[in-house]
Write a structure and sequence with these properties.
Strand order of the largest sheet: 2-5-6-7-8
Helix content: 40-55%
Oligomer: single chain
Distance between the termini: 73 Å
Number of helices: 8
Order of helices and strands: HEHHHHHEEEEEHEEH
Shape: globular
Amino acid sequence: MKDVPAQMGADSVKESFCEAASCLEALHAQLALWNRYGIGSGRQRVITFGFSAFLKVLSLNDKPQRSEITKRLGPSSSSGYDFHKSLRLHARRYLVDGEPMTDVMASAGRIVRLQERQSATLALQRLELWRAATPGDILYFSPVVFESPRHLFKVKFEPDFGLRVRGKTTAIHLWNTKHPKLSPGATYAALSLVAQAFETQEGAPEDVGVLSIREPPTAYLLSEVSDRSTIAASIMERMEEIIRGTISPPPPPEDRPTA
């Protein structure tokens, strides 16, 4: 595959984990508070993120990240309109179903919302160029879901397509979000958890990745990261620490003498 970042050494892996762990800490803190105070029945709600939504949260800076989590997880919130759903459907028609790009582009040109139509057609043009430079058999892989250790949230990784290159199979998720810029550290960290989820699935891919079809198109493959098992293990350990700290009951108020 083209435009793949160079292999990351041990220091880069550690740096990437620290970056993602900081994001996960904020995510768990917000979720724990929401579950503790936001559900009147006392029943804990498990939130499910799509993979792009999860990457978006991890890639945001601290303040906008907390705002995004609060917005998405408030009691009256919903998942909202999926701006990139039409792109994914058209990309699968082109890659998986083998429809000619001319037909796919004609269909995309009928998307009602102007901004969505412009974003999808531009992304499809970039995808066509990437595909022309990236040979290999197109495959299909089933989605997988991974869950946080204390069941605060789930993340669904739904491959948009699979690819076989030189006998190696890869499940790939498309990313076309303009803001924020995709964080490589957060991407590799999240992919390490996806790989663990695939371990128990029959017919699992040998690799997992994210194809960003922003400019320029860039593929992030977990196999390009050395010591990837260490990333996943470290994240899960850190997540356990965060959850234990955030969902434990608050200490009783300190006794103070009355006036």
